[in-house]
Amino acid sequence: FLRSYGRRARARLVVHKIGDPAVAHRALIDNADDFSNRPAGIFPVSLATWENGEPNENITTVRYGPHWSALRCNLTAGILHPTRLASLAPLRQEAAQALVAELSGASGRDREVTLRGHITAAVFPLVARLCFGDGVDGGHVRAMGTMVRDFLAAAGELNRRFDGSMLSKIVNWRALRHVTGLIERQAELYRPLIEARRRSRSPLCGGIVHPYIDSLLDLRVPDDDAAAGDGHGLRELRDGEVVGLVLEFLAAGMGSVSACVEWTLAHLIDRLEVQDKLRREIDGAADATLSSKTLRTGMPYLNAVVLESLRMHPPMPVLMRAAHGEGAKVVPVTRATTVPAEGLRVMFSLGDIGRDGKTWTDPDEFLPERFLPGGEAEDVGPMPGRKEIRMMPFGAGHRHCPGMSMGMLHTKCFVVALVREFEWAPSAEDRGGGIDMTELDGFSKLMKKPLTACVTRRT
Ligand code: HEM
Question: Which of 191, 214, 221, 250 has the lowest CB atom count within 10 Å?
């Protein structure tokens, strides 16, 4: 009995890593239904936000089903809908201009700047505005931004060594308490804004869209899965759930975009001829207001540069799924493994998939031209098609990232502003040996050594 109990307990905790694009395709596309959940308990987030015996689920943690569907549709039909994203161009422009204004003060001949703080300080207010609307004072926005950044760093660090077991909880109790504390402090910052919003809805955000928070306060989710769809058994979101969903929106909207902008700029500084070529495309763009359409389809080289950056450094380094049923047989296991009731824990390595030597020529080289017509990846986009997976920086299958279009637009908008307004060159330290591209895996795949570069305002 003890031996079989031990085997089952071990099987629950073993994580099976997949870095082969063909296997990922068989799992996430051919057997999508069997890979539609994330393993329970691996997320410090969901562990930390139980309330009255009920989990405060967000879109990332909730089980695939009607509750997930209600939360996800609310996001995709609301703020992430393509028509809304298109109308948000003036807000993106304002955020990009704020970044330019801030960096202009720091720029000058041979002046060096460390970029990460500037990038997150520009990306976060845009996401916070889409979340809470206008009228939140600057100090409050900065406090939320700092808290989200600290949370991403602490939770990412914990995530690497936390497997959800009791032993892991005991060994990591200090780090868990730290993460829980950060979530609590965020909740304290969000609650007054949520309350104010409950009392009165202020005008549209930027005069354009309803902020995400309004849709969450209006949303009704199934009380339990059985009652879904018949109009009965619907309920409002609990406060704790709203807090979790807000945190998810802010963290997803800031972390991955900031990481991608930093990596992209690092490569543009490492390969000055790519920076020049991109600048020529940007200077030649007829539409200086950078509409969604221009950013999506009007600048092929910009698109290629961002895709190449996402291929090499997918901001979310791994994605986790629980594999069930027939689909679990797709997972190559080195020794006989029983499939636990909660599914096999599978970890897809997005970095390995994007740099697979069978799929890509010179996978470790930054070569945006591969995404241009005639290149080996001319038909590859940010989301894999049904036929094959060659890269999947936004995931794949039922749980793929719903924020892909927003993520691409925001990333491109900030990269355009940085390249159009400034010349970038390696820092004195990097001039000899090149930029250190070592990756730090947390929740977001960041540059281990934050990018420092020489910045000169263009005249
Ligand atoms: C460059 C930007 C972004 C990248 C690279 C990225 C990447 C990812 C990845 C890899 C996943 C896991 C997908 C899977 O399991 O198949 C994911 C999930 C998710 N992302 Fe993003 N993301 C980005 C931006 C955003 C934005 C802007 C939002 C919303 C504001 C967002 C919201 C979400 C949500 C809610 C999920 C969970 C989806 C679900 O479980 O149904 N992401 N993202």
Answer: 191
- Which ligand 1 atom sits closest to the C-alpha of 314? 5
Cα of 376 from ligand 1 centre, angstroms = 26
* Protein residue with least CA distance to atom 7, ligand 1: 394
| Inter-helix orientation angle 239-270/116-132, to 10° | 150
Going from the Cα of 18 to the center of ligand 1, the distance in angstroms, rounded, reads 19
End-to-end CA distance of the chain: 76
pLDDT digit string, tens, across residues 324-379: 998 898 988 755 567 888 889 999 999 999 999 999 999 999 999 999 999 999 99
**Maximum separation of any 2 CA atoms in the chain, in Å:** 76
Q: How deeply is 405 buried, as exposed, middle or buried, from its count of CB atoms within 10 A (0-12, 13-18, 19+)?
A: buried
pLDDT 10s digits, 256-313: 999 999 999 999 999 999 999 999 999 988 777 778 888 888 899 999 999 999 999 9
For the record, the structure tokens of 279 come out as: 């600048």
| pLDDT, tens digit (0-9, with 9 covering 90-100), for 394-411 | 999 999 999 999 999 999
What separation in Å is there between the alpha carbon of 112 and the centre of ligand 1? 33
Ligand 1, atom nearest to 310 Cα: 5
Structure tokens belonging to residue 88: 């948000």
Cα separation, 310 vs 307, in Å, equals 5
Beta bridge partners of 323: 344
Gap between the Cα atoms of 348 and 270, Å rounded: 29
27 CA → ligand 1 middle, Å: 19
* Nearest-angstrom CA–CA distance, 140 and 133: 13
Residue 455 bridge partners (DSSP): 424
- The 3-state secondary structure of 144-166 reads HHHHHHHHHHHHHHHHCCCCCCH
- What are the strands, taking DSSP E only, across 75-219? 112-114
Measured N-to-C along each axis, helices 272-283 and 404-421 cross at an angle, to the nearest 10 degrees, of 100
Minimum-distance ligand 1 atom for the alpha carbon of 350:
10
